[in-house]
């Protein structure tokens, strides 16, 4: 069993991801762009549009990403939105049907709603972001494409996501690796029948040289807790499932999951997926500990003597 990895990126992907993060920021704790970013963006939006985005039931990410790579041309936000607007509901159904079982019947209404939201978000926010962000995402996608012929699909995904291992299974045929900035350090992983979309965080995109790298912030935070250190020591003995880890540290399920999420995003543990969005096993990622030392050294030695 094996699957194909396709590294894909267009500005439309980040347009969708940024809107998704803005709408769902309350659920996105411990993200680099958090409440301060949300409040800052909100002040720049038209009050009526900002009020519309308060509805966190809006679905703007998962299924639309299945359409982005099907759009011809350069896939700029303007081109994609125009293409989406011109798609008859029947064509949209045919484009989604191979991977989604339950397609809503009101596709025309949903299409028009998404065209409106993406258009306004593009004009009011996305066109004003630092252009270096998009350039660094494009560069990272090129680097990952160069690795396709050099490393295995599983290892390429683990490197991109800093610890997620998608194991082969009979159903999975294609994994789309898509770099993203707005939801870092999280990876947005979604399974659609034979396709998996994996939006991975690009390291230090558009960071100021004098700022603490977010990767270092998350890894030091991950180690600043006794229970997380116990989890790392427990995983040193070998791969474990969630129940075994919870039993070992003796905490509630939600608290255990919280600690595991922090360790995964810091790249200190692996999460193993076997054909679904649910994690089946966890293991220690020793290279993450080595990378931590490199991050600390790089940050300290980068000091030019200023204060």
TrEMBL record:
SUPFAM superfamilies: Winged helix' DNA-binding domain. Keywords: DNA-binding, Transcription, Transcription regulation. SMART domains: HTH_ARSR (SM00418). The keyword Transcription applies. GO terms for molecular function: DNA binding; DNA-binding transcription factor activity. Residues 208-307 form the HTH arsR-type domain. The keyword DNA-binding applies. This is HTH arsR-type domain-containing protein. It comes from Cytobacillus solani.
């Amino acid at each position: 069993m094996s699957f194909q990895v396709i590294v894909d990126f267009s500005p439309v992907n980040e347009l969708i991801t940024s809107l998704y993060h803005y709408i769902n920021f309350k659920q996105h704790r411990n993200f680099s762009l958090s409440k301060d970013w949300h409040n800052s963006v909100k002040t720049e939006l038209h009050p009526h549009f900002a009020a519309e985005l308060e509805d966190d039931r809006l679905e703007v990410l998962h299924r639309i990403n299945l359409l982005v790579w099907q759009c011809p041309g350069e896939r700029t936000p303007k081109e994609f939105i125009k293409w989406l607007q011109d798609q008859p509901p029947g064509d949209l159904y045919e484009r989604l049907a191979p991977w989604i079982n339950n397609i809503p019947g009101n596709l025309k209404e949903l299409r028009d709603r998404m065209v409106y939201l993406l258009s306004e978000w593009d004009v009011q926010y996305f066109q004003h972001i630092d252009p270096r962000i998009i350039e660094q995402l494009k560069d990272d996608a090129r680097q990952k494409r160069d690795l396709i012929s050099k490393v295995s699909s599983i290892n390429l995904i683990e490197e991109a996501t800093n610890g997620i291992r998608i194991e082969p299974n009979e159903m999975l045929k294609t994994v789309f690796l898509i770099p993203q900035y707005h939801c870092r350090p999280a990876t947005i992983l979604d399974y659609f029948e034979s396709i998996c979309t994996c939006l991975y965080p690009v390291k230090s995109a558009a960071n100021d040289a004098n700022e603490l790298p977010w990767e270092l912030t998350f890894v030091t935070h991950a180690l600043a807790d006794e229970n997380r250190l116990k989890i790392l020591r427990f995983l040193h003995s070998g791969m474990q499932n969630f129940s075994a880890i919870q039993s070992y540290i003796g905490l509630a399920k939600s608290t255990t999951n919280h600690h595991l999420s922090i360790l995964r995003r810091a790249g200190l543990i692996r999460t193993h997926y076997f054909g679904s969005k649910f994690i089946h096993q966890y293991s220690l990622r020793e290279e993450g500990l080595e990378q931590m030392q490199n991050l600390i050294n790089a940050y300290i030695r980068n000091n030019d003597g200023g204060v």
